[in-house]
Write a sequence for this structure.
């Protein structure tokens, strides 16, 4: 016979099993993102010196935008690192549930998320608010500070040991460097002709003043269809 709980007992049970767990995850996420900001600042400083020695026109710059966002400009691109404020659990169809680490403790499946987006730096420089950015990776962190990454190319297969991998500064450095390499390896694609064959007078005037015709590395193509081949 299943155990019976009064409404109050059930609420307290959920506090214990879920709310406290989620608060632990949120604390880990805040700690992880603070560590990520420190790592980004160090990587930016190091790459800036090396880029300047190679070609003074190459811009490398780190900017802390808010509690939840940090930006890293790398030449013609900007990587936006964004921490979600909420805690999530994976859908039952997700492969994470196949791991004994999660099967033995479902609480391990509750994670915070840091998303990494790729934008063109000109989109911010010229305030082109219609431009597209693309999600290239998501870092999942749980209450044990265990992590794994979903992402494009090397970001999608190098960081999958959820049961054992601990998110520390070394791991963050590797993830950030992988994101930079992925970003720099891809060129700006020409938008399909049919996507831009018509333009309004107002849009053209705005383009003259603010360069606002929509641009993006994958403009006109579904990101999910990206075959990850460097062009």
């Amino acid at each position: 016979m299943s155990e019976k709980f009064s409404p109050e007992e059930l609420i307290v049970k959920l506090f214990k099993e879920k709310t406290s767990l989620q608060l632990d995850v949120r604390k880990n996420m805040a700690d992880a993102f603070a560590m990520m900001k420190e790592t980004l600042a160090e990587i930016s400083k190091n790459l800036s010196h090396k880029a300047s020695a190679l070609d003074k026109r190459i811009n490398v710059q780190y900017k802390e935008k808010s509690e939840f966002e940090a930006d890293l400009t790398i030449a013609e691109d900007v990587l936006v690192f964004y921490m979600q404020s909420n805690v999530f659990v994976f859908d039952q169809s997700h492969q994470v549930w196949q791991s004994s680490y999660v099967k033995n403790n479902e609480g391990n499946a509750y994670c915070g998320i840091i998303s990494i987006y790729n934008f063109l730096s000109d989109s911010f420089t010229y305030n082109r608010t219609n431009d597209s950015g693309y999600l290239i990776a998501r870092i999942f962190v749980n209450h044990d500070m265990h992590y794994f990454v979903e992402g494009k190319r090397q970001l999608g297969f190098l960081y999958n040991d959820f049961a054992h991998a601990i998110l520390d500064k070394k791991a963050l450095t590797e993830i950030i460097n992988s994101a930079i390499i992925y970003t720099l390896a891809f060129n700006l694609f020409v938008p399909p002709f049919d996507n831009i064959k018509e333009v309004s007078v107002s849009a053209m005037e705005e383009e003259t003043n603010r360069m606002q015709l929509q641009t993006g590395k994958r403009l006109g193509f579904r990101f999910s269809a990206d075959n990850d081949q460097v062009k």
Notes: The two ends are 62 Å apart (CA to CA). The CA atoms of residues 8 and 14 lie 10 Å apart. Confidence is low (pLDDT under 50) at residues 219-225.
